[in-house]
Specification:
This protein is α/β, with parallel strands linked by helices. 48% of the residues lie in helices and 11% in strands. The strands form two sheets. It has a seven-stranded parallel beta sheet with strand order 1-4-5-6-7-8-9. A two-stranded antiparallel sheet has the order 2-3. Helix 16 links the parallel strand 8 and strand 9. 48% of the residues are buried.
Length: 345
């Protein structure tokens, strides 16, 4: 077995003492890079880039080469799963994802394929992983990801991004049985998808519940936690990171799922989390991405404060993804501050 040269992320997950906290950036960190924009301009759009393995691999590796992060995250999109299940989507420039057809009935849900049958359609993702692993040449771990069942359901019913996802939430109230039927199919597909990503070579997987904060605790316990549990319980081969944005109200239940790592957004302070859950739980996060728009001095100060507050057992990251217009200088300051930090054991 080949040994990863920079395995500080994996060593941290294993509970080993490391010289400093590891750092990687959620979502498509490369999109702030001129090199990424050059590749993006060479194709018709985001979806074509996702479906072209050689180019997806190229932009996956760029943040490792240029920014020096401690892990790569495969360039892809969470909505490839609904498309593979039979619900195609488009990505409209400056507007985001759009589903020409939305889920409204039992017959539509019944017509969706799921599990391995759906996951096997995503060969371009697994090809991109294989190419990326060769290009990384064991320098850093590769992270694969998936959207969580509720987050994918939200898009499939709403049809696009939303400030409220009121149609999707209303569906949970009006059609609980159909909601569970769709969530079950999505969960089957997510598990199969992550398993095939593991076979293709990813070292860690992360599940993004990007719209968790749209729900209250009652809805989250009924329509999210059971399906997240199935996913976490099904992945034993490699570490699992679970990131439920805005779900501060469900941290007790999320911790009980026992993912290897829990991602925190910027609304939760490190010190308050540690007071409630002590230092046993490995966490990832959670600097507000907007801090990266500020001065170099403030980025450095707030980054160090974050690390000190977590007091070890921590993977440095932002509280969500890098925004497209984030200054590259701010991202570099954030990463270099972390890489210059030294634990005092």
């Amino acid at each position: 077995m080949n040994v990863i040269t920079n395995d500080i992320l994996l060593r941290t997950i294993k509970g080993e003492k490391v010289e400093r906290p590891p750092v990687w950036l959620m979502r498509q960190a490369g999109r702030i890079l001129p090199e990424y924009r050059e590749v993006r301009a060479s194709v018709s759009g985001f979806v074509e880039l996702v479906k072209t393995p050689q180019l997806a691999a190229e932009v996956t590796v760029q943040p490792v080469d240029i920014l020096g992060v401690d892990a790569a995250i495969i360039f892809s999109d969470i909505l490839v799963i609904p498309e593979a299940m039979g619900l195609p989507y488009e990505l409209i420039e400056k507007k985001g994802p759009f589903f020409p057809e939305t889920i409204q009935s039992k017959s539509q849900i019944s017509a969706l394929i799921d599990g391995v049958d759906a996951a096997e359609k995503l060969h371009y993702v697994y090809d991109a992983i294989s190419i990326t692993k060769k290009q990384l040449n064991n320098r850093v771990p590769l992270i694969g990801f998936s959207g969580a069942p509720w987050t994918l359901l939200a898009y499939m019913i709403e049809g696009q991004g939303s400030k409220t996802f009121s149609k999707a939430k209303a569906f949970l109230y009006k059609e609980p049985q159909l909601s569970h039927l769709l969530l079950d199919k999505l969960t089957n597909s997510i598990i199969a998808y992550l398993k095939l990503k593991i076979q293709a070579g990813v070292d860690v997987v992360q599940v993004f519940d990007s719209w968790a904060g749209m729900l209250n605790k009652e809805l989250y316990l009924e329509f999210c936690i059971p399906y997240l549990k199935r996913i976490v319980d099904s992945i034993a081969e490699i570490p699992v990171i679970l990131f439920a944005k805005g779900a501060y109200f469900a941290l007790d239940e999320i911790c009980k799922l026992k993912p290897d790592v829990i991602g925190l957004d910027w609304t939760i302070s490190a010190s308050s989390f540690r007071e409630q859950y002590d230092n046993k739980q490995l966490v990832q996060g959670n600097l507000d991405p907007c801090v990266l728009y500020s001065s170099s001095e403030q980025i450095k100060r707030r980054t160090i404060e974050m690390i000190d507050d977590f007091d070890g057992n921590h993977i440095c990251n932002l509280g969500h993804g890098v925004y497209p217009d984030t200054p590259l200088s701010g991202v570099k300051e954030f990463i270099q501050t972390i890489k210059s930090y030294k634990y005092d054991y």
